[in-house]
Design brief:
heterodimer, A: 112 residues, mainly beta, B: mainly beta
Chain lengths: 112, 108
Amino acid sequence: DSGVTQTPKHLITATGQRVTLRCSPRSGDLSVYWYQQSLDQGLQFLIQYYNGEERAKGNILERFSAQQFPDLHSELNLSSLELGDSALYFCASSSTGTDTQYFGPGTRLTVL
Amino acid sequence: GIQVEQSPPDLILQEGANSTLRCNFSDSVNNLQWFHQNPWGQLINLFYIPSGTKQNGRLSATTVATERYSLLYISSSQTTDSGVYFCAVERNTGKLIFGQGTTLQVKP
């Protein structure tokens, strides 16, 4: 158990819908990261937050957005969902933002 | 950006055998991690090893930062070692760049 929690574990929805994925970092970690794992793209970095502020951005689509709240949990919002958004979404956390990242169990999103 | 290449892409072993997985990266990095993704999809931290050698039970890893490669050694493999092994690197940006992984199957 990494100490990073993600909910829900599985999500099945339809094209055009909007979903929210939630992540709670390890106790004491200030930085949260989101990654997407798909069959064709592999594991890709989406976005990083550090203590509530966006710190780094990867190839995150405009339909996707994220935020980190004062209690340090984070949410990833995916809207206007397409079939190609089906993937495993991981959240990770680290204490300083450039050290070991610990990954949560992931949320498996299926868009039908 | 930094390129990460892992080899071999696939590996089949008999239980009890040893193996070496390799990760090459194209630029200097300040973070390198090895992960094991189990059949249930969980990504498990194995090592944080930007340089040097570390050991944890039957697993060990060595990173030669000056030559831009890292090796993961698995000794006396067990069926529970099956899964995908990822190497990921980071260079002062916070974002981990993952290789494509090595899929390991350990047969009883």
